[in-house]
Amino acid sequence: MALLGNFLTIRLQQHSSGVATKVVAETTSVDAQFTAEALESTEQADALVARFEPGKTTINVSGDYLQASDGEQFELLFAHANAGDKIEVDLYRSGQVFLSTEGVFTSLNDSGGLSDSLVTGAYSMELDVVAGSFYGPVLNVSNCENTDYTTFANGTPTGFDAVSNGTATHEAGTADEISFTSGTQYYIEFDEVLNSGTAPFVNLASAPTTGISDEGAQVSANGSNVFTFTCNTTTTGMLVVLNTSDVSDFELTNLSVREIL
Questions:
Q1: Which of 81, 167, 220, 224 could form a disulfide with 105 if both were Cys (CB 3.0 to 4.6 A apart)?
Q2: Residue 179 vs residue 56, higher pLDDT
Q3: Residue 226 CB neighbour total at 10 angstroms
Q4: Which residues are within 8 A (CB) of 52 and not within 5 positions of it... i.e. 6 or more apart?
Q5: What does the alpha-carbon distance between residue 159 and residue 19 come to, in Å, rounded to a whole number?
């Protein structure tokens, strides 16, 4: 399958500076070829039955140019390729992400150099995709909202600051706008700065106090956070963030909720 995108962003998932989503290179010249392998087996029951076991998925990306977003980090693109580090790839169409995934470089070629401002010549790269890592677009598009945290500030679609005085269970989260489907998995990621107190829990929810995931509320941690939740209800809802009668002072940034495809 070939998909022609009009904007490609390459983001390192592993990064020497500790910034997991640092953009290192980008281009508006993109051709992506997807190859999926499967192992076929057959068995004789009432009839001959074929089964397919999922195998490796490979993305071949090429184009006319690849521009360094940051020269120093662009050089590290090759270092990470050689080290086998995972990177994150977002494909955009009309300014909107329509596919995200992560994988490991199996080849990387570039006819240009590595200066800070250089627009390189033709490029090509091949990535082996990490199993289960095709993601849909970001679903949280409106500003995050407070339910009853003691203090709430800087609400954006991708985060907020909150303080709980510990006198009761306090909740906040994304806007109540996400269309959840029962049986579907959702990929959650955000960065957290825990200034003091107890780290909050996160969960899929149809209302601030009504969780709708098989896993239930999961505790976050200071730093980068990634969660996978399986929804058990088809409804419109939110990602809820809560403290259960604990004193807490934290900041969330780079928050995204995406469906695992």
A1: 81
A2: 179
A3: 10
A4: 38, 39, 40, 41
A5: 16
Q: Tokens for 80?
A: 């990470």
pLDDT digits (tens, 9 = 90+) for 155-164: 999 999 999 9
* Nearest-angstrom CA–CA distance, 238 and 203: 8
- Helical segments of 9-119, H only: 71-83
Q: Which domains does the chain have, with CATH numbers?
A: 2-133 (2.40.30), 138-260 (2.60.120.260)
Instruction: Name the CA radius of gyration of the chain, rounded.
Output: 21
DSSP 8-state code for residue 157: T
Alpha carbon dihedral 235, 101, 193, 239, in 10-degree steps, equals 0
Side-chain-side CA neighbours of residue 247 (13 Å) = 4
Q: Do the Cβ atoms of 135 and 99 come closer than 8 Å?
A: yes
3 state DSSP class of 143: coil
pLDDT at 18 over 50: no
CB-side neighbour CA atoms (13 Å) of 145: 13
Copy the structure tokens of residue 102: 């992560």
pLDDT of 9: 66
Average pLDDT, the chain: 81
DSSP state, residue 156: E
Bridge-based pairing of strands 169-173 and 235-244 is: antiparallel
